[in-house]
Amino acid sequence: MKIGFIGLGNMGGPMAANLAKAGHEVTGFDMAEVSIEGVTLASSGAEAATGADVVITMLPNGQILRAVAADIIPAMNAGAALVDCSTVDVDSARAVAEQCAAAGLLSVDAPVSGGIGGAAGGTLTFMAGGSADAFAKAEPLFDIMGQKAVHCGEAGAGQAAKICNNMILGVTMIATCEAFALADKLGLDRQKMFDVVSTSSGYSWTMNAYCPAPGVGPQSPADNDYKPGFASELMLKDLRLSQQAAESADADTPMGQLAQDLYAQFVENEDGTGTDFSSMLPRFEKRSRQ
Ligand code: NAD
For atom 20 of ligand 1, which residue has the closest CA? Predict the structure, then answer.
């Protein structure tokens, strides 16, 4: 396939490289100067999109996605597909899908889970929203860049799935960290806490697979001085998207709201930036009840 790839950063770069390695003809564009193995660079997004069967975008946010989409949609051939893999707000995803439909293009919102390691290893999970035809067109590419793709529903459903998942993740990480900090103060050994909770009703992905306590459970960023992994500021971004969506859909999400506020405090007023999102544990450790 002829593929245009716009946004060749930490995630997009290795994803584009994997598509090229699999034999696709990939033309990429990024505002920053980049060099990606196997990818021909264009001098604009529109140039990268011209003549492509599929254009993939991997960009920082919805505002940038809307600007890039306005630029590339007129350059795309009728019947081509725009596949946005960025994590953006549901409203932007739906707005771009409408513009694509009006221009005779297919579109998929397909945010990912799996992080930089998943992007490099081709083991991402894609959660996709769009028509069956659009999903079918993108699926062979998802198979190269990832290990699983779930067609979640119509336009916006991929972003909806992503932010709901990450709202649970943020809330659960905070609950796991505050429980460890409480256990410390109660004199409970962390390993014993893990042994009990990981096999009891408090178990979760954050406890069992990504334990925030160093030296306990499987290897995780806690064992690497809380280097990300999944950075606290990215968790904050996703929690904000969840609350923006909740506002727009009039959904009551008090725990999501509180998780957003705590990560905002941690990232903006404390030392959370650049640390893994599990470093909420050392944060709670240092604190007392106010
Ligand atoms: P990044 O900042 O490394 O990459 C974004 C790239 O987009 C940059 O290279 C930037 O120069 C480029 N860019 C910005 N504006 C542009 C424009 N107008 N035209 C062309 N290029 C432009 O970010 P990333 O970590 O690769 O994340 C990309 C997306 O993936 C984000 O939406 C993020 O939320 C999501 N995501 C990231 C992770 C992760 O672990 N990094 C995990 C899951 C999802």
Answer: 30
User: CA 150: distance to chain centroid?
Assistant: 15
The closest of 278, 251, 254 to 266, measured between CA atoms, is: 278
Helix ranges (DSSP H) in 186-253: 190-197, 205-208, 232-249
Q: Per the structure block, which two tokens stand in for 282?
A: 């050392």
Buried b (16+ CB within 10 A) or exposed e, 255-277: ebbebbebbbebbeeeebeebbb
List Cβ neighbours of 208 (8 Å cut-off, separation of 6 or more): 198, 217, 218
57: β partners:
6, 84
Place of tokens 């564009």: 29
Protein residue whose Cα sits closest to atom 40 of ligand 1: 115
Residue 244: count other Cβ atoms within 10 Å of its Cβ.
16
C-alpha of residue 61 to centroid of ligand 1, in Å: 8
232-288 pLDDT, tens per residue?
A: 999 999 999 999 999 999 999 999 999 999 999 999 999 999 999 999 999 999 999
**Active-site option among 137, 148, 162, 237:** 162
Does 137 qualify as catalytic in the annotation?
A: no
